[in-house]
Amino acid sequence: MSISNTTRTVLVTGASRGLGAAIALELAATGAHVAVNYFNSAVAAEGICQQITAYGGRAVAFKADVRDEDEVARLVQEVEASLGTIDILVINATGPQPFQSIEEQTWRSHLDQLEFFVKSPLLLLKAVLPGMKQRGFGRVINIGSEVFELGNPRFANYVAAKGAQLGLTRSWARELAPFGITVNLVAPGWIPVERHVDAPQREIDAYTAGVPMQHMGLPVDVAKAVAFLASDGAGFITGQSLAVNGGNTLN
Ligand SMILES: NC(=O)c1ccc[n+]([C@@H]2O[C@H](COP(=O)([O-])OP(=O)(O)OC[C@H]3O[C@@H](n4cnc5c(N)ncnc54)[C@H](OP(=O)(O)O)[C@@H]3O)[C@@H](O)[C@H]2O)c1
Q: pLDDT over 90 for what percent of the chain?
């Protein structure tokens, strides 16, 4: 299904693997031209682009550290020179997410998460905003997490940063609505990706026992929600958080 009558250009950060790769593949399948951002995994990012071009889509891989102001400015310049001005921004990249008690946590460990979920979104939005405002169209989709609703223990730095990302979403949505730019957040539950390959089955069973749908989600479940919010048809939806977690935060 196409998301627009116009060919859209999308930047997906952290799209070399995990949820970002699924989002890139899904948006490319809707006809969008996709910038696949990566940091370390060049071969994987090229592999995602090859999958897209194999079925007639258009995708290019771009290396950049999305926490660095100069690299974000260069990234957006390179994407726009190669694929056209960015209509849709998916803020997805994440670094390591270690579980730590309050005693183990430091201000530095909080900054580590805030750099991905506050600093990087700010840098990215500021870089794409002139083009979106000029065209009177934009879709900004933050990838948040259900953990903000659940308040997971030993995870306060990540939970707080994901909460802050929701705050950005809500404030940006109100400020940018007059310009035809929507800002929303997709909040996945635990969706196993490559980095969860060693997750013990008992942990998966314990998680799914609490999920009303009684099973784990797939990366494509998240990707479909992102594609909907990126579509022209979602133009009257802004400032929202959409949980993709089988009903895990229904209470
Ligand atoms: N999977 C889940 O269960 C889950 C649940 C809730 C929320 N989320 C959220 O969903 C998003 C994606 O998570 P994921 O599980 O798919 O992560 P992941 O599989 O660990 O992938 C992380 C991605 O971010 C990229 N990345 C890391 N550091 C970067 C940097 N400095 N600059 C640019 N890119 C960088 C990685 O690229 P390289 O490999 O090239 O370094 C990779 O493509 C995150 O925002 C996460 O918080 C995930």
A: 98
